[in-house]
Design a protein that fits this description.
By secondary structure, this protein is an alpha/beta fold. About 60% of the residues lie in helices and about 10% in strands. It has ten helices and five strands. Strands 1-3-2-4-5 form a five-stranded mixed beta sheet, sandwiched between helices. Helix 5 crosses helix 8. It is elongated and about 120 Å long.
Length: about 250
């Protein structure tokens, strides 16, 4: 091996390594390369939530949370509308009590983003959850409406309001509050027994109304038969009268 070849070999190996990296990068499917993914993440203007900060940032808040992936076409389609909603609620006039939080969770962000998506059993993307974030988000429900800013804003103005539950008794009507407080005063065994009692009552109610519906159905069939018989008899009488008129003529 000549001296020049000895020095060129490491340079050629280095160049081949760089070339391989560049080709690997540029051969990624559109939108899935690292730069595109970073741009999507950086464009998010909603509060970024992970398993590390979720409980702290959402405590006492009414939330509207998007679970997404930077690769997901449908997530990208709603991206501008979501950012517009986040900007809207960051305006003091639109969030006077600072109790509404618009958040985003990147389900591909390891490990904290993925962990939060697993915690809420997110199966498809995008998924949007909303509601009272107390008690770790047990009250959250899935949003199934359209995904424009106007739809988001209209929905949140109506739904992101304090609602009666065990974590927010101040929003309850007097009767509801008394009932919830009676449950709070119970022990675990009493609560479990209460659930079983109510589930049994539900079953009995379904059986009762199924039986009542059957009776109503029988009665309906009886009246339907009577009506059919009467109508048939009337038609026969009319036909006979017309025949008599024809004979008289």
């Amino acid at each position: 091996m000549t001296r020049s070849t000895f020095f060129l070999t490491p340079l050629l190996l280095l160049f081949a390594s760089i070339l391989h990296g560049v080709l690997s990068f540029t051969n990624e499917p559109p939108g899935r390369d690292p730069i595109s993914i970073d741009k999507v993440r950086a464009a998010e203007r909603a509060v970024s939530l992970t398993s590390d900060n979720f409980d702290e940032l959402t405590k006492g808040k009414l939330v509207f949370i998007k679970f997404f992936s930077p690769h997901c076409p449908h997530c990208k389609e709603m991206g501008n509308a979501w950012n517009e909603l986040a900007d809207y609620y960051q305006q003091p006039d639109n969030n006077k009590n600072e109790d509404i939080l618009i958040g985003s969770v990147d389900c591909t962000n390891s490990p904290a983003g993925k962990a939060l998506c697993a915690r809420f059993k997110i199966m498809g993307l995008p998924t949007i959850l909303y509601g009272d974030a107390n008690f770790g988000g047990v009250y959250l429900e899935e949003y199934r409406g359209d995904k424009t800013f106007a739809d988001f804003q209209q929905f949140t103005s109506k739904e992101l309001v304090p609602k009666c539950n065990a974590g927010n008794l101040d929003a309850c009507a007097a009767d509801d509050r008394v009932e919830i407080e009676s449950y709070i005063a119970m022990g675990y065994r009493e609560l479990e027994a209460k659930i079983k009692q109510m589930e049994q009552k539900e079953k009995e109610t379904k059986v009762f109304y199924a039986d009542e519906f059957g009776k109503l159905q029988d009665k309906y069939n009886e009246h339907l038969a009577e009506k059919t018989s009467y109508v048939t008899r009337v038609k026969d009488d009319v036909r006979m009268i017309k025949e008599v008129i024809a004979l008289k003529g």
